[in-house]
Specification:
287 residues; globular; binds zinc ion; alpha/beta; 8-stranded parallel sheet
């Protein structure tokens, strides 16, 4: 049996055939699926799905890329939503500096800004201020959600992209209070060991099957089996031979097979160890 620890079943990609998707997961022995909230609205939908389908559970949270659109107070509603017995974790939350506001502005806007401001230096300062505000908003929402997780005794699903040092600095201050999984892990073995040393976990997606995924595959193969969880991050990151198509939870099996093959371990061993890890990490069977 396998657990897909990170799926986005509430995304429109699954609106028309979710029951077929869940049946294929069942056939692939993917017995549990955690659907991950990315906003308050998405978290509510995640819970609805978890209430409707016995194999589906919900994680609730606000994704760092959505902080500018987020409500002023996300914690009060998240706290209420967390009372639902199908909620097994807080997340996804974290830091994502991949596209900062200064990189998001279009060419025309840049020209306008350039004309409006007297010099390029002014523009740079302006961009730094905007990016700084964006980053601190992300950090604030990340910390608020970590605090909520501590309060509720739930673990946390972390999204980190191009923000390694800041993420580690924040998570380090929660050591011993909350456990986290660094989802879609793509870092080095040293970085993985840093996460494991703080008693957190890493999880891997279909990237481990990609031709250009050799480094991640190697890291996955070198980490102790019981520190790993399996995820699809569907509808994104479909493993080979489905790369580029819609991903779905059934493919968690392909991810497990690829990690097993890289480390010379059977898929059964990967399945058993990662399932036990996920059973301990997520709060299934809450009363
Ligand atoms: Zn995700």
């Amino acid at each position: 049996m396998l657990i897909d620890t990170h799926a986005h079943l509430d995304f429109p990609d699954f609106a028309s055939d979710l029951e077929d998707v869940l049946r294929r997961a069942e056939e692939a022995d993917v017995k549990r699926i955690i659907t991950i909230g990315t906003s308050l609205e998405s978290s509510r939908r995640a819970i609805e799905l978890a209430e409707k389908y016995p194999s589906v559970y919900a994680a609730i949270g606000v994704h760092p890329s959505y902080v500018l659109e987020a409500e002023d107070d996300v914690i009060t509603p998240l706290r209420e939503l967390a009372q639902n017995s199908r909620v097994v974790a807080i997340g996804e939350t974290g830091l994502d500096y991949h596209r900062l506001p200064s990189e998001k502005v279009s060419k025309e806007e840049q020209v306008q800004v350039m004309t409006a401001l007297r010099s390029e230096t002014d523009e740079e300062i302006e961009a730094q201020i905007r990016d700084g505000a964006y980053k601190s908003k992300q950090a604030s929402l990340f910390q608020q959600q970590l605090d909520l997780a501590v309060e509720l005794g739930l673990n946390v699903v972390i999204h980190q992209r191009d923000a390694w040092l800041d993420t580690l600095e924040i998570i380090r201050s929660y050591t011993g209070k909350v456990r986290a999984v660094f989802h879609c892990f793509g870092g080095s073995l040293d970085e993985a060991n840093e996460v494991l040393a703080l008693d957190h976990l890493v999880s891997f997606t279909g990237i481990v099957t990609f031709k250009n995924g050799a480094a991640v595959r190697q890291v996955a193969a070198e980490i102790p089996l019981w520190k790993i969880m399996i995820e699809t991050d569907c509808p994104y990151l479909a493993p080979e031979p489905f790369r580029g198509k819609r991903c779905e939870p059934a493919y968690a099996r392909i991810v497990a097979e690829a990690i097993g093959a890289a480390g010379g371990v059977s898929v059964e061993e990967i399945a058993e160890a990662s399932t036990e890890t996920a059973e301990q990490f997520f709060r299934f069977n809450r009363i």
